[in-house]
Write a structure and sequence with these properties.
Residues 45-75 are annotated as: Disordered. The chain has 146 residues and is an alpha/beta fold. 36% of the residues lie in helices and 26% in strands.
């Protein structure tokens, strides 16, 4: 009996979810999530002007820099959403194994957000951005991981 395998193909702005439900069965795209905020520049995400502060010595003032990169924060938030959705589906027994395909930085963010049970279900990982690849190319890469 073939187990159901899901694959997430993602970057900071898009996540495509696929299912393999049997050897030789076609790859089925289940969901395509587009995160508009992930494609914005840091200044577009954080539209307010930065706060102002006084110098510790003297009477000068200057703009405060944001403590974190807004694009990175938004990508981390998206990775958390994806991991939460996958975790729920895994606990509902929607799939048994998982493949992760994402650029290196986002792949790391996904790993950070996964709980240990979901992380143990990962059958393979690929450091590539295939979010815009056709389904045949994605299927080829997934089969290579398994």
């Amino acid at each position: 009996m073939f187990m159901t395998i899901w694959a997430i193909v993602a970057d900071a702005a898009r996540a495509r979810l696929f299912a393999l439900e049997g050897r030789g069965a076609p790859l089925k795209e289940l969901e395509d999530l587009i995160r508009a905020e992930g494609a914005l520049k840091g200044g577009e995400i954080e539209a307010d002007r930065p706060g102002r502060t006084f110098d510790s010595a003297g009477s000068g003032r200057h703009a405060m820099e944001p403590s974190l990169d807004p694009r990175k924060e938004e990508a981390q938030r998206f990775a958390r959403e994806i991991a939460n959705q996958l975790d729920t589906s895994y606990k509902n027994h929607d799939f048994e194994r998982l493949c992760l395909i994402a650029p290196p930085e986002f792949l790391g963010m996904l790993r950070e957000e996964m709980d240990s049970a979901l992380a143990d279900a990962v059958a393979g990982e690929l450091n590539k951005d295939l979010t815009h690849a056709d389904t045949d190319r994605v299927a080829t890469e997934i089969w290579a991981l398994l």
